[in-house]
Amino acid sequence: MATEVYLVRHGETMFNQLNKVQGWCDSPLTVKGIDDLKRTARALSQVHFDNMYSSDLKRAIDTVHLMKNANTVSEIGKIKKLPEFREVFFGSFEGDDIDQTWAQIGQTAGVGHETNVQKIINQVGIGNFREATKKADPRHLAENSAELNERMVRAISNLHQLTKNEKRVLVVSHGDFIKTLAIKYWDQNDGIHDIQFPNNGSVTRGIIHDDGTFEIVDYNKDAEDL
């Protein structure tokens, strides 16, 4: 049985608002974040889900409960938390100022004092950006491309095992993780070039096929587009 997967990005958080690096570190949803999520939840309220899952970070857990509570056509039990669907890990940069962090990574990547992450990625490529992040991290704990790819593959494999008898599920995850999944699994992308960062509360749809292969079929749709 193929399983349709609705990947929802969590709502805006305090760290998003304060322009801080937020990977495995956590911060609460803002009022704006909750309001945006309510629109997404209303748009999905009549979509039947066999189950709902979430990253194990609190901002994702709070988001999935908003989706669950608004849905009137699904009977969802206890939410299972999936650590593999956490955000990308930024190591020692967690909680730091975003502009200062990108400037450090940009210098390591050889593009000078650049604070615009998209410009850095455009110049060096997403793979080299990940390598530069790990190299610039004083403790070298940040995930590089190989580590992140291994975790993505494990995430899809685990989800496939969990959803073998489920036709449609919702999974709350994170912006950079969803984007990286789409770079790898979206047929409109070549698997190399960067793509637009998904919006808070946006929905990306994928399909896990019977044999465990995964593909993204719809990316970064806001509530009004659902």
UniProtKB/TrEMBL annotation:
A biological-process GO annotation: negative regulation of glycolytic process
UniProt-annotated binding residues for substrate: 9-16, 59
PROSITE patterns, sorted: PG_MUTASE
Gene Ontology CC terms: cytosol
Transmembrane residue ranges: none
CDD domains recorded: HP_PGM_like (cd07067)
Matches recorded under Pfam families: His_Phos_1
Keyword DNA-binding: no
UniProt entry keywords in alphabetical sequence: Hydrolase
Residues forming the catalytic site: 10, 87
UniProt-listed Gene3D superfamilies: Phosphoglycerate mutase-like
Gene Ontology molecular function terms on file: fructose-2,6-bisphosphate 2-phosphatase activity
Site (Transition state stabilizer): 174
Name of the protein in question: Histidine phosphatase family protein
Taxonomic source organism: Lactobacillus xujianguonis
Taxonomy of the source species: Bacteria, Bacillati, Bacillota, Bacilli, Lactobacillales
